[in-house]
Model the fold of this input.
Amino acid sequence: MFLGQFTYHKYVFGACFLALVLLALSVGDSASAQGRGRPDAMLIIDSSKSMLGRIKGKRKISLTRNSVSRALGPFRPRLDLGVMFYGNRQSASCSDVQHMIRIGRIRKKRYMEIINGVAPKGRAAVAEALFQASEILKKKSQKSSIILITDGVNICRGDPCALAKTLQQKNAGLTVHVIGLRSKKTQMRPLRCLANRTGGKFIAVNGTKSLNQAVKDTFEIASSSTIPLPRSGPRRLAEQKNAREAEVAANEIIPEDNIRPEEI
Done:
């Protein structure tokens, strides 16, 4: 009789222990999936010559760098971010677009080394940059965002407002947010239309404080979408995590031999 009771309690204890293990694995799977489900965004920074102009005594490009730097740290665990520039290499080209940081986990120090090393030089190839960013984000097959910071001056051929329809036809999950550094309303009208047509925000700024808030707000919106991921066992999750970390380490920053010396 004693042996029977011992065997019964042993089985009860084993069943409870197994249930607790399965519950812990389930919670771990869910947390891991949520942690890896960061939305994708491409930050496009206007690096045309007009960004050397000043707002309240400070260069527009310097204000932009500082605001982006403030936002990168807090959003590192919530957003996978790439960075693209236009107008930074050629003085008169409307196809001068450079994708310098691939979409991936934010590394603030390295990101800012590259962003701070880009100097305004040429024209504003806005439409070309938007199209290239859309093509990159389309391959991700999930909801994604473009955040464009520009002063809207010296824009090349191509109507951003008309482009909005094309972008959404190619990538239905794409939203474009535009931060407009102080400029004439007529110059910003096509960019405001672009944001509105893609369901994004257009934010006009006129100084340091409003720019800081605008960058923070657009990053917040871009990072607010949660990407549903399939649940899987702990071994598979570990393999996916290791593969993702290896990919990020290898691909987060575009190889430096693709970057001109003066751009580093």
User: Anything to note?
Assistant: The chain has eight helices and eight strands.
